[in-house]
UniProtKB/TrEMBL annotation:
<dbReference type="InterPro" id="IPR003829">
    <property type="entry name" value="Pirin_N_dom"/>
</dbReference>
<protein>
    <submittedName>
        <fullName>Pirin family protein</fullName>
    </submittedName>
</protein>
<dbReference type="Pfam" id="PF02678">
    <property type="entry name" value="Pirin"/>
</dbReference>
<dbReference type="InterPro" id="IPR011051">
    <property type="entry name" value="RmlC_Cupin_sf"/>
</dbReference>
<dbReference type="Pfam" id="PF17954">
    <property type="entry name" value="Pirin_C_2"/>
</dbReference>
<dbReference type="InterPro" id="IPR014710">
    <property type="entry name" value="RmlC-like_jellyroll"/>
</dbReference>
<dbReference type="InterPro" id="IPR012093">
    <property type="entry name" value="Pirin"/>
</dbReference>
<feature type="domain" description="Quercetin 2,3-dioxygenase C-terminal cupin">
    <location>
        <begin position="147"/>
        <end position="231"/>
    </location>
</feature>
<comment type="similarity">
    <text>Belongs to the pirin family.</text>
</comment>
<dbReference type="InterPro" id="IPR041602">
    <property type="entry name" value="Quercetinase_C"/>
</dbReference>
<feature type="domain" description="Pirin N-terminal">
    <location>
        <begin position="17"/>
        <end position="120"/>
    </location>
</feature>
Amino acid sequence: MIDIRRADTRYRGGDRQAGIDTRHAFSFSGHYDPDNTGFGLLTAVNDERLEPGAGFGEHRHRDIEIVTWVVEGALEHRDSTGAVGTLRPGQVQSTGSGAGILHTERNAHTGPTRFLQMWLHPDGYGGPPRHDRADVTLPQDGGLVPVASGRGHAGAVALRQADAVLHAARLGEGDTAALPRAPFVYVHVVRGALRLGEEPLGEGDAARITGCRDLEVTGAEGGGEVLVWEMHAEPSYG
């Protein structure tokens, strides 16, 4: 089953007076829809836009895996593990909150910063928090590259979730990438234009695929960049 969600149907959040504009894929904060609380292991896919100097003050997370992918600009991250750094396009970051972590995020760029932040359930609870960051090189002619993984993929940041892998691809016009065969696959178009089979997908569009088999994404006119979650389970609360 393929469920297409267009960019303009996302919940609009943030605080635009404070320079924060957010588009939520699932129920989040003041937006609650009992029929849209997550997909597979994902509980949040937030498309964040920060004006220069804007950001999120110190706040706490626990028992959630957070993956951040910067689309443009620069995002400064500080957390209670002592990790401090600036994330830019071409890098990926994972933060395992464990029993609890405090962190702040701020636009460290002179222009707008846009990033995707994705939350998913871990496969265990408690324990020390963790921070990981890696540089990512995407081939220009397509092909999925693991960028965050609970399965030990080389070059990918680590996740405390053995049933999840995040892939990225940059597809030129006509280039194709085979989607993983998995019970749950989430496709998000970061920028540009793609096709899922014959279905056109534009920037910010997403597809939730249950029982994914023998599907491909293809670069449409001008090509595009895509993030693909491969998930082999749903959350376990035992």
